[in-house]
Amino acid sequence: RYCRLRSWNTLFVCGTDEYGTATETRALAEGLSPQELCDRYHAVHADIYAWFRISFDCFGRTTTPQQTRIAQDIFQRLLERGFLLQDTLEQLRCESCGRYLADRFVEGTCPFCGYPEARGDQCDKCGKLINAVELKNPQCKVCRGIPVVTPTQHLFLDLPKLEGRLEAWLERSWAAGDWTANARHITRTWLRDGLKPRCITRDLTWGTPVPLDGFRDKVFYVWFDAPLGYLSITANYTDQWERWWKNPQQ
């Protein structure tokens, strides 16, 4: 509102981040499809923001054709430029359900503190991050069957290849910008420890499809997909969206 009062050209967008395992597990608990769940809660969120008179130009969502198009386009550009690599991950698979178990679809005993209801990504008692295959006595949350460790192929963003370029950009940005001390510290820590390849795919059905042979039964990991919602929501608002997001001179 301040920017608008100053007559600055202003765009204010937000939306609901709708893909990922949190949606799938909640939909399962409520007896709904993931789409039905997202439709319900998108309306709830939109009503709350309207009640607070928060003046978004567009309050959108990530489950749109524009989101799919933009995410897949960025993926293809990364692929063409050699910034992706393939590797094998060991994952828990439930043979009864016929699916690999994403982190929130598996529970077991925490390998660190012994808490018996730890999730496949984190223990809520001791707070430690967990790789699902490290869980003791793992169980599928859907059928309570015992999953087995199975190898599966995934795609990774080759962050080490970008490390030198990123470091040079950060030095320029730190010199010219107004970074907080905390932001500088966290970023320096990442670089000090060395960037690692980061997985961008998951064995799920609820998400943006991966447009590559051999991976078409997978979707993009929500961390790769969700930030692009700002772009796709802008694209749903105006066909001039690239003037907002691809305009480094302004």
Reconstruct the topology from this structure.
Elements: H1 2-5, E1 13-16, H2 21-30, H3 34-51, E2 58-61, H4 65-80, E3 84-94, E4 99-100, E5 106-109, E6 118-119, E7 136-140, E8 148-157, H5 159-176, H6 181-193, E9 198-199, E10 201-202, E11 219-220, H7 222-225, H8 229-237, H9 241-245
Parallel strand pairs: 1-2
Antiparallel strand pairs: 3-4, 3-8, 5-6, 5-7, 8-9, 10-11
Helix pairs in contact: 2-3, 4-8
> What is the name of the CATH class of the domain at 1-81 and 223-249?
Alpha Beta
Which shape, going by the Cα principal axes? globular
Strand order of the largest sheet: 4-3-8-9
| Main sheet overview | 4 strands, antiparallel
Tell me what portion of residues adopts beta-strand conformation: 15-25%
Report, as a whole number of angstroms, the end-to-end distance. Answer: 20 Å
Question: So how many helices?
Answer: 9
- Could you give me the name of the CATH homologous superfamily of the domain at 1-81 and 223-249? HUPs
The proportion of residues forming helix, as a percent range, comes to 25-40%
What is the structural class?
A: alpha+beta
GO molecular function: ATP binding; methionine-tRNA ligase activity
Domain Methionyl/Leucyl tRNA synthetase: 1-248
Protein name: SYMC protein
Pfam families: tRNA-synt_1g (PF09334)
Question: How would you characterize this protein structure?
Answer:
Among the domains are: 1-81 and 223-249, HUPs (Rossmann fold, 3-Layer(aba) Sandwich), CATH 3.40.50.620; 92-150, Methionyl-trna Synthetase, domain 2 (Beta Complex). It has nine helices and eleven strands. It has helices spanning 2-5, 21-30, 34-51, 65-80, 159-176, 181-193, 222-225, 229-237, 241-245, and strands at 13-16, 58-61, 84-94, 99-100, 106-109, 118-119, 136-140, 148-157, 198-199, 201-202, 219-220. Strand 3 (84-94) and strand 4 form a beta hairpin. The radius of gyration is 21 Å and the shape is globular. The model has no long low-confidence stretch (mean pLDDT 92).
